[in-house]
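Before relying on records like the one below, remember that each one covers exactly one chain. Contacts with other chains, cofactors or solvent are not represented anywhere in the record.
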Amino acid sequence: MKVQIPELSLTEHLLQSKVISLEDMEIARKQSMRTGKKIQDTLLEFGLVSSKKYAETLADFLGLPLVDLDENEDLEAIPDLPLSVKYLRQHKILPLSMENNQLIIAMAFPTNIVVLENLKKTTGLLLSVKVADHADIDRKIEELYGSGSSSMKMILDDLQEDELEILSSEEDQDVDTLRDMASEAPVIKLVNLLFSQAVDQGASDIHIEPFEGDLQIRFRIDGVLHDQESPPKKLQSAIISRIKILARLNIAEHRLPQDGRIRLRLMGKKIDVRVSTVPTMHGESVVMRLLDQTSMFISLEDLGFPRDNLEVFKRLILHPYGMILVTGPTGSGKTTTLYAALDKINSPEKKILTLEDPVEYQLKGVNQIQVNTKIGLNFSNGLRAFVRQDPDVIMVGEIRDRDTAEIAIQSALTGHLVFSTVHTNDAVGAVTRIQDMGVENYLIASCLDGVLAQRLVRQICQDCKTPVRADPKALEELEIDVARAEELLVYRGAGCRKCGKTGYRGRIGIYELFEINEDFKNLIVEKASANVLKKAARKAGMRTLREDGWVKVRNGITTIEEVMRVTQIDEI
């Protein structure tokens, strides 16, 4: 098979297909000129384009079929091929099958005509070429023709035993030694691998946890921590020092917590990494929060709102003034919901200001300010300044104290629409939380229009979704009264490659919307308890978190176990 190279260059095709921006292409050109590497190698090495997207674009550019090696789990090594593993690795070639006198191969860079000609001569076979992701090719070569080593194992193989001893440093080493350790090429590759694996798996956080005998790596994926392959304990100081250098932290300080940030380009995405280190008994623990600055936030319609709640919430956010609170624990999607609400009401006629810690998404046409406590810019100080900026809508990341609460309420009472969050278990709990901060009941009743409580549940993987009989005990615990519960069918994920054998892929919200009408305002003024407010709200038709979760269970979106996991302390 002869590969036809189109007249249009690949770089021009990447630009026209909007796979890469002109700015990033210029970065790659300059870097390629400095290093002498091919521009496509630079694009992939610097994460200016994801390897999967590059493979898709290359296949389209050359008019060749694209093969997903992850879907070919039954691939087997082809015996007696006169090709060394080193040759396959070097040129990113994976033999797929042999039919008659034809060898079918997957290549990452089939534009290399010299390699194709040599391959044809060496094997004496006709070639049928397909395009595949170079990272997938590397992994499959190791599985079928190599030792089955993982990417981390291959990097560690590059370290000699004497180098491992150098890197097994103690905390009392000087700064120069720590910096030298962190600059070792395998260490740099290991840290880069951590970032790329986390982004590829859709992780929100990377946890690096030192223990007495080992170093543990875990990724938080869809809200749940998962163990990952970990490097040896000897590399602990080198890896942590490398991360601290990237985050511009003091690599010689091991006794105090530190916070920093790293900005990366990975797989064609701009990633903002928030780094936190704290000292433990066996070294520094590092947690890195990954924020994809290029990702688009989700619209209100796609968050998982029940239709009736969605209509009520849309009506609330169109009020000209007042306060709307979103409540839930950390990681429950509160900020995403607020961004979706702001996007819905954003227009040239409105001035919208946000005060956040941190700014997670960039909203076009919205003035976003980040909290900076080091210089005295906290929520209360920032909110005071906001009211002098003639805003129509204000979003405050969180109400944490009486000062912030009172300023937010005064803003709502003086003609502004205020959005914010608080940490409570359910919707009515937000009222008592503000009361506990010392705010007068009549002020809360005057401005608060609604409270939305929410949680994120993992969605069942659609590729391995299967019906199962519901567990009557689980239904009883969820307080769901269903006739003939033992015959009721629900769904769960059996576990497959696409969901990492977890049975779940992606998350969706479950919601509890408390719309505060005149009757509830009177109850708030009378300082009714949370129990009284909740009973009145349910009588008025409010659906609880668990009830909304059950609807999603019956619709095959999530599982009973997931609903129980995120609401286990929420129901009174």
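The first strand starts at residue 93 and ends at 99.
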